[in-house]
């Protein structure tokens, strides 16, 4: 049964939006800016800082992990109401870095509002980017999307958001069995984001994210040749090693034999790479050196909620975002 939210969750334009979660149809609308040239799409995903603010409440050994002040008081934690839907604040028209977060929410069946699916949602994004949001005593100003708002909590940076969502949505092994699982899953997600997301972005923007692709095509060509021949096989080979390791456990997933958000991140990276470098990815698959990696891709894609999402209207098509197709990029390596 679909739950309908009948109160405004986002301030978009001057209208109160009634958002039907889990069955939202994208609304085509003209954008006031060119997303293809917007530099804020290109900021790299820096490694998340492990903070007692977001992690400690999820750990059974929280008391041991929280440093005490000289007066003996625990570090103050950010309040967040778990009974309200998540708000994903991200650019419309592209999957981008917001897609890693969407897949996590979709797999968990979590209620969320996505500004990319709401007419006028771009206004919410720009309010954060331009620093027009009121100053907040508990949340620092946001630098760039993706942004997650959950109750009183407002955070950004893709890996940081995943670090917050993973334990809450059951996409990290339980702390009772593996107290350090969160750090291991995060390590795998960060590696995928480094080599299979940030580096592909730099293929079409090797000089500066503020410049158009057309202004750096020659440099991009050299970058692509190096990435496809050297860096791409290196990272795929690493994840094949992970999947063949004892820590991977039984089954097709990266860690402890269970699906984690790192698997969803890796799936999206592989999917984007198949769009961006179809010939190179087909060749690597055919060679058979990364069989477990492509088995993971298939396994995640066939999970019921993920499969439904991928075939539905909420899944946005690749265009001029993070993963792009240019004919001159389509080499075998």
From TrEMBL:
UniProt domain GST C-terminal: residue ranges: 178-319
Domain GST N-terminal: 85-173
GO BP: glutathione metabolic process
GO MF annotation, one: glutathione transferase activity
InterPro entries cross-referenced by the UniProt entry: Glutathione-S-Trfase_C-like, Glutathione-S-Trfase_C_sf, Glutathione_S-Trfase_N, GST_C, GST_superfamily, Thioredoxin-like_sf
CDD domains: GST_C_Sigma_like
Full protein name: Glutathione S-transferase
Origin species: Neurospora crassa (strain ATCC 24698 / 74-OR23-1A / CBS 708.71 / DSM 1257 / FGSC 987)
């Amino acid at each position: 049964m679909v739950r309908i939210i009948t109160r405004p969750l986002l301030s978009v334009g001057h209208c109160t939006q009634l958002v039907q979660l889990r069955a939202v149809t994208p609304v085509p609308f003209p954008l006031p800016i060119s997303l293809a040239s917007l530099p804020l799409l290109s900021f790299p995903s820096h490694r998340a800082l492990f903070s007692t603010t977001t992690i400690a409440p999820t750990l059974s050994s929280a008391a041991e992990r929280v440093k005490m002040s000289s007066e003996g008081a625990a570090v103050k934690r950010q309040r967040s109401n778990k009974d309200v839907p998540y708000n994903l604040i991200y650019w419309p028209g592209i999957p981008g870095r917001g897609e890693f977060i969407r897949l996590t929410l979709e797999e968990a069946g979590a209620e969320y509002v996505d500004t990319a699916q709401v007419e006028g949602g771009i206004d919410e994004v720009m309010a954060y980017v331009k620093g027009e949001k009121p100053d907040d005593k508990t949340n620092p100003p946001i630098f760039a999307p993706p942004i997650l708002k959950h109750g009183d909590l407002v955070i950004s940076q893709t890996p940081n958001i995943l670090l917050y969502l993973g334990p809450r949505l059951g996409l990290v092994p339980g702390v009772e069995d593996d107290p350090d699982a969160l750090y291991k899953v995060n390590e795998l997600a960060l590696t995928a984001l480094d080599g299979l997301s940030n580096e592909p972005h730099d293929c079409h923007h090797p000089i500066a994210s503020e410049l158009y692709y057309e202004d750096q095509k020659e440099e991009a060509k050299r970058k692509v040749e190096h990435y496809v021949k050297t860096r791409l096989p290196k990272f795929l080979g690493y994840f094949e090693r992970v999947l063949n390791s004892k820590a991977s456990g039984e089954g097709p997933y990266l860690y402890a034999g269970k699906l984690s958000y790192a698997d969803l991140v890796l799936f999206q990276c592989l999917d984007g790479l198949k769009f961006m470098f179809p010939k190179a990815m087909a060749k690597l698959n055919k060679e058979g050196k990364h069989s477990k990696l492509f088995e993971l891709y298939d396994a995640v894609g066939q999970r019921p909620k993920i499969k439904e999402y991928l075939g539905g209207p909420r899944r946005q098509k690749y265009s001029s975002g993070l993963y792009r197709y240019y004919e001159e990029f389509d080499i075998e390596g």
